[in-house]
Amino acid sequence: DTGVSQDPRHKITKRGQNVTFRCDPISEHNRLYWYRQTLGQGPEFLTYFQNEAQLEKSRLLSDRFSAERPKGSFSTLEIQRTEQGDSAMYLCASSSTGTYGYTFGSGTRLTVV
Amino acid sequence: DQQVKQNSPSLSVQEGRISILNCDYTNSMFDYFLWYKKYPAEGPTFLISISSIKDKNEDGRFTVFLNKSAKHLSLHIVPSQPGDSAVYFCAASALSGGSEKLVFGKGTKLTVNP
């Protein structure tokens, strides 16, 4: 069990570029979550998958954001046409059905310049 | 509109004493509450949780108390240790409503002084 792995750890991109982040959950976990955390705030929910199905999405997830979890394993979060307001820590977490204490990854810090 | 509030941005205590971190919520649909601890450059780590059918849950040095009528919960750490220094987040969920998302507070930075 290597925990939840996120790649890359840091990403600096120019405004208007597209970026994609990857999350590898704990292998036996069927649930996967994406959160965003900005400075001085707690994590904010973006979206949730059970296996490969995306079951819940926040209104924070604008049409520039898309998340996938093909085959119910790893997940990707893509942000198109990045804006400076997208600068944040993007956290991935996973859990198993019936358990409610997520395991979070270390996050991907995005800086849009 | 912040549904989970941690009104103390920071707390400083002496090693060996009790740390009490507070959290208030406004949404009466919340029925499950969790505390997470976060060190710099790491993701949050699950600490302890409580269901709304209980008013207390204990795990070693950590105890969470829930007062549903006041919509208030607290985390007690006894005795506090320097390694407990971190940011603590309170989170809530409306599980019976079918939602899997957690709503987090802004966090309280705890410093335990040797």
Description:
The complex is a heterodimer of chains A (113) and B (114). Chain A is mostly beta strands. Chain A is 0% helix and 50% strand. In chain A, strand 4 (31-37) and strand 5 form a beta hairpin. Chain A is globular. The termini of chain A are far apart. The model of chain A has no long low-confidence stretch (mean pLDDT 93). Helix content of chain B is 0%, strand content 53%. Chain B has strands at residues 4-5, 10-14, 19-25, 32-38, 45-51, 56-59, 62-67, 72-77, 86-93, 103-104, 108-113. In chain B, strands 2, 4, 5, 9, 10 and 11 form a six-stranded mixed sheet that branches. Chain B is globular, with a radius of gyration of 14 Å. The mean pLDDT of chain B is 95. Chains A and B meet through strand 5 and strand 10 of A and strand 4, strand 5, strand 9 and strand 10 of B.
Q: Low-confidence runs of chain A (pLDDT<50, min 5 residues)?
A: none
Q: Mean of residue pLDDT of chain A?
A: 93
Q: In terms of per-residue confidence, which ranges of chain B show pLDDT below 50 for 5 or more consecutive residues?
A: none
Rg of chain A, Å, rounded:
13 Å
Q: Roughly what percent helix of chain A?
A: under 10%
Helix content percent band of chain B? under 10%
Largest sheet of chain B: 6 strands, mixed
Q: What structural class do the secondary elements of chain B suggest?
A: mainly beta
> What's the order of the H and E elements of chain B?
EEEEEEEEEEE
What fraction of residues of chain B sit in β-strands? Answer: over 45%
> SSE order of chain A in H/E notation?
EEEEEEEEEEE
Helix-and-strand structural type of chain A:
mainly beta
Average of pLDDT of chain B = 95
Number of helices of chain B: 0
The N- to C-terminal Cα distance of chain B equals 38 Å
Straight-line distance between termini of chain A: 36 Å
Our Rg estimate of chain B from Cα atoms comes to: 14 Å
Oligomeric state of the chains in view: heterodimer
Strand content of the residues of chain A, in percent? over 45%
Major sheet of chain A? 7 strands, mixed
